[in-house]
Structure formats: C-alpha cells, structure tokens
C-alpha cells in the first residue's frame, strides 16, 4: 500500500468507527435514538411550592427526546439531504407525486394580500380573494365544459369523495333509493372503489380489454349483469385517460349507455393534465369530475402541499355540490351557504378550501393562457411517447402496438423477468443511477408494470439520459449481467430496506 | 393426501365433509409478492359463490379472495393474522384463510384439479 493509500485508508477507518459520516453523506439516527440526556434544549426552573391538584405529578419524565435547537435543526437538515425531489433531478414517477412548481406561482401566493388574509374576515374586506376564486371556478368550468364548480375539497381523494357524495345526494333527492351499484374498471385507482364503498355503494368490476381500455361489450356485460335495464346502477367511476396512459376511445358510447340507465358518470380527473385545452370532459359525457390542482395545475404537494381537489359538475348536479361556492352579484362577490343552496349535501371542509393553492393554480393558468395550457398537455404527451418509442423494444410495451399513449408510457418487466430481474430491481437500479424510480406495480391490470410520466417540463436532454440508462439496464440483463440488479442500490444512505418486515412488524411507538 | 381443487381466480380448496378450507395458490402468492396482511371474514358470515370474503395485502398490492361456494364462514385462521408466513403452507395444513360450511357442495364440481390448474397457469404466462 502506498503512503497516500495508507492515509486514505486510515481516514476512512476513523470515519467508519466514529459515526458513519463520509464526505457529504451524513449518518443520522432517529431522534428517539439519540441519547442527549445531558443536553436539554430548554432549562425550566424547578416548580417551587406547587402542589398537584389533580393527583398527577407536577414534574416528571414524559419520554420526549432531550435535544437542543441546533441538534434538532441538524437532525432534520441531514435527513432532508437523503431525500430526492423534483428540484434534484428527473422524476419519472410524474405528476402523481410532483411536477415542477413554477416559482412565479410562489411569488403570487406570497403577496401580502394573498398570504395575510384570514378566512373568517368579512366578505366585504376580501373581495379580491373571492374574485380570484370566482375566476378560478370560471377557468375550471371553461376547461372541463362543466358549469358547476366547488373548490373546497382538500385533495384528489377528497374531491372523489365530494363527487360521489354529490351523486349520492342527487339520487337521494330524486328518490332513487334502489340505485346502489357503481361500475369501476379494474384499471382504476384504488381510491375509486374505496370512495364508492364509503358513500354506501356496492362496487361492480368492469374488466379491461387486451387494448388496456374498457370496451363497449365489456361495459354492457357489467351494466346489465343483474337486470335488463340496469335500474340498480347509480353511476360509474372512470379515469380518462386511464391508468394505463390510454384515452378511453369508446367513452362517449359508454357514457350514453350509463345515462340511459339513469346513472351518473364520475370521472377521476387525476390524468386531466393530458387533456387540458384539447378535450372538454363534459363533451364526452362526464357529470362530475375532480381536478387535482396539485397535479394538473402545478401547485406543490407530496410533502410541500397541501393538495387541492375541486370538483366540476354538469348543470343537473350543480345544486348538490358541497358549500360554499363563490357567486358574483352585480360588481361584488359572495359565498353561498346552505341557506342559498338547500339541495347541497352540506359542508365538507372548514372554510373555503386551500386558498393558497387557488392562487398558485390561477397564476399557472393565467401565465400560460389558453394556448400555453394546450401546449402543456401536448408536451406532456409528446414526452411520454418519446420514452415509449425509445424503450418499447428493450422492455415489454403491452399497448404500444395499438398506437401512441397519452401522458404516461406503460412498460412491464416481462422480458427481464425471464432473466430473474424484476420491476423492483429496475427501480432500485434507477436509484443507484441518480433517478427517482417510475411508478411500479401499478396499474394492476398486468404483472410487473412500470408507468413512466416525464411531465411537460423535462428537456429532451434530461429524458435522453434516462432512456440511455434504461437501455443500458436492458442490455446488461440480456447479456446475463444480472447479479448487480439484486444488490442495487449501493451508494444510497440505506441499501434495500426490508419492506416485508416493516409491513409485518411495524414499530409504531418508541418504547 | 386430500384432493385440492382450484378456481380460476387462484383460490385453492380442501374439502372435508361439507366444509371447504379456502386459501390462495402459490401462483397467486408469487404474483402478489410477499404477503404482509390478511383481512379475515367474521365467523358466522353468510357468503355467496363469487363474493369476496377476505383481502390479502402484499407490499405491492392488495387482492380480494373470493368464495368458491355459497355457505357460512365457520372458522377464520386467526393464527395467520399474527403470522403471515402461514399462508405459504399447504391449504390442507395451516395455509387456509377461512373454513366455509357449504350449502351446496356440488358448486365445486366444475373446479380444476392440480394438473388442470397447472396447465391453466402456464397458459396465463
């Protein structure tokens, strides 16, 4: 060993022996595992002359970690350096988790008139804020082709709940107590059946065809499974584009059949970011849909949130949506509550919803304009199709032969699995190569799925680097170089976590 | 060795008198990944053929388990709730999720035997 190598080796050993820190990698234990008993953050005086009147000790250990302010700061800052975010690099998991949040939105949200108002202020003092909400309602209505808008739901699944409660309320008001079944394709987000059941409906499954879409035949079979007129069917929940990244081509015919049976069409708007400015969901038969402002309209979420999931409805369902909504009366704006909207199912959330998100979403819409929003959809779809076209020969692309995809490209591990490498291994390998993994094992309609959404803001250069790495994996696996795929990641602060043990024996409490 | 029957939804069934022991096949377990949780049915619950009576959950996904017959749940495998490894055992040992007292055992007549089921799963891959 050379002298230099000896020094390096020694330094390395010291670091390993001490605390595992190396270079810019900092080790960090759980706060509860720190034993700073001699370093309390705050010194409180002994309580003198206080007698307990409740029988409980006046002063005793309550089991909180004993840490000082700088220790707390270091703890969280160190933990944050283990994170991977959209501001670090390419995030093929896509808008479901995070897409770029334009900083102009943040600037608008921080204006004192937006940031410092209180939801309990008299309406006359917040006319600007109400006007902003009214404008947002108008933009959403215009883009969806649906006249009724309620901004209050606090997230996508909350919007789903609001949408399905609206449908339930409409049936209740019309006396349709026999309508108890909701049709849901097997490619749906898991929240769809959960929401339907929470609203008291029974779920009937619609199988997805070989094309990845719901066919008219399969839909008819499900619709009329129990009666000739489907009288028991209250509605359906369909995501369009669906979770395979495909536009449901027969949706107009399917919606017509449903409407003839007296059912309402709830559209899961999670993937609306592929349609904005191109298609109005109201035109393909949607009665109510939710919109993820934090997905389609770039407001922060996934830890930076909160989310925001307004719903848009047809004129028929508009009276039933939750209160409040904003209305324009002459030159002023007002909130409408139960007394103005007697058919509403009530209130779903405190106050008016996530106002800070409304500001950001409207800033995004107004800064892009109608043509810009259309281009956002086009670029999102273009990016996904570029990925699909480049990787469809290296990975199994189940629907690529049927034509282009929407904003997400679907691959599976079918080819790699023969060599013993699975979708999970590929996801872990991506981590090693400095990318966040794509969505894995969803949708559930096929085994080992990988759903890739580059989003509209990724440059060609950035997508190309991802494609090069993915192609490299496929080539290595094909050549039999598979061992490393079971070992990845190697360079992350933690290697592979034992997910099974974590789920089977979670430690939820520090004992 | 007791004869095991199989559904095309990947349940496996051991028949003992008029009681069906229902579990899920190895093929299903491999497709789902390591199972971490089972939601057991309540004893005494009436189930219909094709109705979901239990849910199994892996780190990747969750799946319903369907009843192969009409009947009444007479026992749920409480041990499995504490030790999910049990699901990897044969259905005739500790691998059953629930025991269902059948109201019409002839509903099982159309189910596959092991050889047929193996052929079926090969056709799926």
Quick recap:
The complex is a heterodimer of chains A (511) and B (125). Chain A has 511 residues and is an alpha/beta fold.
How would you describe what is shown here?
The complex is a heterodimer of chains A (511) and B (125). Helix content of chain A is 36%, strand content 10%. With 511 residues, chain A is α/β, with parallel strands linked by helices. In chain A, the strands form 3 sheets. In chain A, strands 1-7-6-5-4-2-3 form a 7-stranded mixed beta sheet, with helices on both faces. Chain A has a 3-stranded antiparallel beta sheet with strand order 10-12-11. In chain A, strands 8-9 form a two-stranded antiparallel sheet. In chain A, helix 6 packs parallel to helix 7 and helix 10 crosses helix 13. The longest helix of chain A is centred in the last third of the chain and has 37 residues. The model of chain A has no long low-confidence stretch (mean pLDDT 92). By secondary structure, chain B is an alpha+beta fold. Chain B has one domain: OB fold (Dihydrolipoamide Acetyltransferase, E2P) (Beta Barrel), CATH 2.40.50. In chain B, 18% of the residues lie in helices and 36% in strands. Chain B has 3 helices and 9 strands; from the N terminus they run βββαβββββαβα. In chain B, the strands form 2 sheets. Chain B has a 6-stranded antiparallel beta sheet with strand order 1-2-3-9-8-5. In chain B, strands 4-6-7 form a 3-stranded antiparallel beta sheet, with no helix packed on it. At the A-B interface, helix 15 of A face loops of B.
Content of β-strand of chain A: 5-15%
Number of helices of chain B: 3
What is the general shape of chain B? globular
What structural class is derived from the secondary structure elements of chain B? Answer: alpha+beta
CATH architecture of the largest domain in chain A: 3-Layer(aba) Sandwich
Cα Rg of chain A? 27 Å
Number of helices of chain A: 15
Q: Tell me which protein chains meet in the greatest interface and how many residues each side has.
A: A-B, 10 and 11 residues
- H/E series of chain B: EEEHEEEEEHEH
For the record, the CATH class of the largest domain in chain A is Alpha Beta
Q: Give the fraction of residues assigned to helices of chain A.
A: 25-40%
The number of distinct structural domains of chain B comes to 1
Report how far the terminal alpha carbons of chain A are from each other: 47 Å
CATH superfamily descriptor of the largest domain in chain A: Type I PLP-dependent aspartate aminotransferase-like (Major domain)
CATH topology of the largest domain in chain A: Aspartate Aminotransferase, domain 2
Roughly how many Å apart are the termini of chain B?
28 Å
Q: Bin the strand percentage of chain B.
A: 35-45%
Question: Major β-sheet of chain B, in short?
Answer: 6 strands, antiparallel
CATH topology of chain B: OB fold (Dihydrolipoamide Acetyltransferase, E2P)
Total domains of chain A, how many? Answer: 3
């Amino acid at each position: 060993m050379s002298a230099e190598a000896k020094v390096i080796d020694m330094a390395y050993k010291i670091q390993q022996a001490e605390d595992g820190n190396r270079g810019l990698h900092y080790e960090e234990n759980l706060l509860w595992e720190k034993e700073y008993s001699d370093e309390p953050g705050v010194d409180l005086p002994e309580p003198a002359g206080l007698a307990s009147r409740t029988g409980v000790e006046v002063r005793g250990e309550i089991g909180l970690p004993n840490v000082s302010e700088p220790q707390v700061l270091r703890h969280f800052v160190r933990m944050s350096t283990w994170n991977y975010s959209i501001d670090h690099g390419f995030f093929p998991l896509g808008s479901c988790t995070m897409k770029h949040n334009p900083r102009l939105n943040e600037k608008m949200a921080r204006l004192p008139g937006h940031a410092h108002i209180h939801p309990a202020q008299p309406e006359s003092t917040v006319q600007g804020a109400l006007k902003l909400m009214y404008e947002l309602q108008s933009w959403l209505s215009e883009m969806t082709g649906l006249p009724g808008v309620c901004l209050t739901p606090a997230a996508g699944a909350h919007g789903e709940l609001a949408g399905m409660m609206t449908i339930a309320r409409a049936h209740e008001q019309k006396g349709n107590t026999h309508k108890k079944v909701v049709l849901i394709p097997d490619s749906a987000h898991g929240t769809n059946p959960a929401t339907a059941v929470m609203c008291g409906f029974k779920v009937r499954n619609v199988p997805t065809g070989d094309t990845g879409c719901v066919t008219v035949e399969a839909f008819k079979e499900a619709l009329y499974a129990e009666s000739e007129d489907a009288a028991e069917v209250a509605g359906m929940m369909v995501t369009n584009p669906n979770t395979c990244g495909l536009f449901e081509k027969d949706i107009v015919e399917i919606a017509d059949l449903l409407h003839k049976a007296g059912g309402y069409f709830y559209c899961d708007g999670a993937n609306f970011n592929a349609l904005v400015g191109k298609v109005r969901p109201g035109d393909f038969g949607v009665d109510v849909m939710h919109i993820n402002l934090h997905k389609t309209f770039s407001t922060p979420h996934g830890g930076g949130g909160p989310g925001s999931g307004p719903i848009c409805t047809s004129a028929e369902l508009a009276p039933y949506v939750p209160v409040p909504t904003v209305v324009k009366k002459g030159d002023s704006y007002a909130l409408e509550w139960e007394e103005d909207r007697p058919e509403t199912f009530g209130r779903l959330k405190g106050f008016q919803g996530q106002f800070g998100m409304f500001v950001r979403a409207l800033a995004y819409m107004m800064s892009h304009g109608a043509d810009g929003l259309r281009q956002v959809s086009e670029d999102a779809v273009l990016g996904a199709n570029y990925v699909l076209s480049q990787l469809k020969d290296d990975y199994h692309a189940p629907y690529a032969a049927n034509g282009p995809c929407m904003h997400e490209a679907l691959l599976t591990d079918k080819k790699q699995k023969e060599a013993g490498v699975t979708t999970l291994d590929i996801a872990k390998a991506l981590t090693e190569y400095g990318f966040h993994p794509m969505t894995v094992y969803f949708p559930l309609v096929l085994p080992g799925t990988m759903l890739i959404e580059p989003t509209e803001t990724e440059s060609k250069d950035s997508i190309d680097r991802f494609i090069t790495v993915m192609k490299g994996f496929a080539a290595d696996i094909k050549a039999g170089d598979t061992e490393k795929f079971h070992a990845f990641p190697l360079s992350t602060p933690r290697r592979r976590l034992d997910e099974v043990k974590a789920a089977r024996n979670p430690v939820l409490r520090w004992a | 060795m007791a004869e095991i029957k199989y559904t095309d939804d990947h349940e496996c069934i051991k028949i003992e008198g008029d009681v069906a022991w229902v579990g899920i096949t190895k093929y299903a377990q491999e497709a789902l990944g390591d199972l971490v949780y089972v939601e057991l049915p309540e004893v005494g619950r009436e189930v219909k053929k094709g109705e979901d009576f239990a849910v199994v959950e892996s780190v990747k996904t969750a799946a319903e388990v369907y009843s192969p017959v009409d009947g009444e749940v007479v026992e749920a495998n409480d041990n499995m709730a504490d030790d999910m490894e049990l699901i990897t055992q044969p259905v005739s040992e500790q691998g059953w999720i629930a025991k269902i007292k059948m109201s019409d055992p002839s509903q099982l007549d159309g189910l596959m035997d092991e050889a047929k089921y193996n052929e079926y799963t090969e056709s799926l891959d």
